[in-house]
Amino acid sequence: MERTLFRTILLLLPALLSAKGDQLVDQVTIGVQQPIVYRLSQPVPGFVADQRLGLLRHERLRGQVIHVARPGLRGLFETRAVRTPKGDLLLMFPEGNHYAAGAGKINDMLAYRSQDNGATWNGPKVAFDINYSQHGFIPLIPRGSTRIYAFGTQPIPSAYSREKGKHENTPIGFRWSDDDGHTWSPVELIQPENDPQFLGMSVTRMCETDSGAWILGSHAANWSQQPLRTQQYLLRSEDQGNTWTLLPRERPRGWFSPEYHRMDEGRPIHLGGGEVYFMARTPTGVLWQSRSIDDGKTWEAPTPSPLIHPDAPPMIFHLSDGKTLINFIHNRHIGTQYIGLKGTMDGMKDRSEIWITLSKNGGRHWSEPRLLFVNATLPNPEKNGWFNHNVSYLDAVIDQGIIHLFCPHLWNRALHLMIDEAALDDLPTRRQLAPQASG
């Protein structure tokens, strides 16, 4: 009993200590080409310098800090959430170290739950009582079902090797919950029929098509090759996870951008009528895209999209109408050092801004980007750029006209942010920002 109480106090202490927030920078610089500088000591029209959240945010965006990584731990990682069948918001993220940083148990998957649409949160609790680390929670609730699936990377020590630069490649698997996400089944591993020994990593959203097919992105990385090489794949099941096919074909014939031999963290999203859209991360300065018109069975060769984005994942979702796509992009790319993903890279600063762009025709055309928020927390000299600038890897639950965003801010704090869909037109474009800048 005393041990449980002590552990609860340790879990809650960082959030209590951080209630006032971190120190903010004196100014933020938005963009790379023709940068815009805002001094936070001067009013920024339409924006709030929010010390509690550590952001320069649009005034229509509101939020709270749900969790701060406990002292002595490296941080927390991908924040993922779902609206449960009973109407709760369920948020999960790993706390500790990244699963690929070491063998064995180096993090726990924590869970928070809100029963009042995000006003208050209960937690944390350990979601999965397992003896190995986790990467992220990829939720799926099949249509007409009350079962929640939790897909993701499964670094089971006995099931993969950390040698020869392939330490990120592990089995991909899933659990399920029939009690609204309170308890979970043992993991079931995916063994594609055309590549049964497939190993990769998966942490971006998946989808279910009109026919009931499930499509999940997964990429394989080889860090022993300099520069790093990755190949993007899709896992597809027509029978609710009983059997799977690896697309576009078995390894090593995945997708990649020719310039860098890189493509990863792909995100499929269904559009209806047998059409599925797909976006993926590359180091080329833009998101890449592909499309299937046969329910995800075959795909166009991926090509560059017009959306400016650094070496970071796509963050694309449906608005409440189920048709309009919203894409959260960084909208900047320094264009240097994009070959190794080191924490000292200038390019890590490209993960510091969030803009939104909309598409009403399945990603064929995108609206002019509008600024939502910018990281404004003073950098921690003990941490590198990978931590000091991050607002990337956003997740969203969007329904009833409200956008709930979940951000692993600085890989240290789980933020819950909210904005009404009706407020998106109030966000400024870059042309509207420029006359307001202070330098």
What would you note in describing this structure?
The chain has 439 residues and is mainly beta. The chain is 5% helix and 37% strand. The protein contains three helices and 29 strands. Strands 3-4-26-25-24-23 form a six-stranded antiparallel beta sheet, with no helix packed on it. A hairpin with a 3-residue loop joins β28 (402-409) and β29. It is globular and about 60 Å long. The termini are far apart. The relative contact order is 0.14. Mean pLDDT is 93; it is low at 1-7 and 13-18.
The gist of it:
This protein is mostly beta strands and 439 residues long.
List keywords for this structure.
439 residues, disordered N terminus, 5% helix, 29 strands, mainly beta
Largest sheet: 6 strands, antiparallel
Number of helices: 3
Strand order within the widest sheet? 3-4-26-25-24-23
> What percent of residues are in strands?
35-45%
The outline comes out as globular
Structural class: mainly beta
Instruction: Give the distance, in angstroms, between the N- and C-terminal Cα atoms.
Output: 58 Å
Q: Are there runs of 5+ residues with pLDDT below 50, and where? A: 1-7, 13-18
For the CA atoms, what is the radius of gyration?
A: 21 Å
Give the integer mean of the pLDDT values: 93
Instruction: Determine the fraction of residues in helical runs and give it as a percent range.
Output: under 10%
Tell me the total number of β-strands. 29
Blueprint (SSEs and pairs):
Blueprint: H1 2-17, E1 27-30, E2 36-39, E3 47-50, E4 55-58, E5 62-68, E6 75-76, E7 80-83, E8 89-96, E9 107-114, E10 122-126, E11 138-140, E12 148-153, E13 172-177, E14 188-189, E15 207-208, E16 214-222, E17 229-237, E18 245-247, E19 264-272, E20 275-281, E21 286-292, E22 303-308, E23 316-318, E24 325-329, E25 353-359, E26 370-375, H2 385-388, E27 395-399, E28 402-409, E29 413-420, H3 430-433
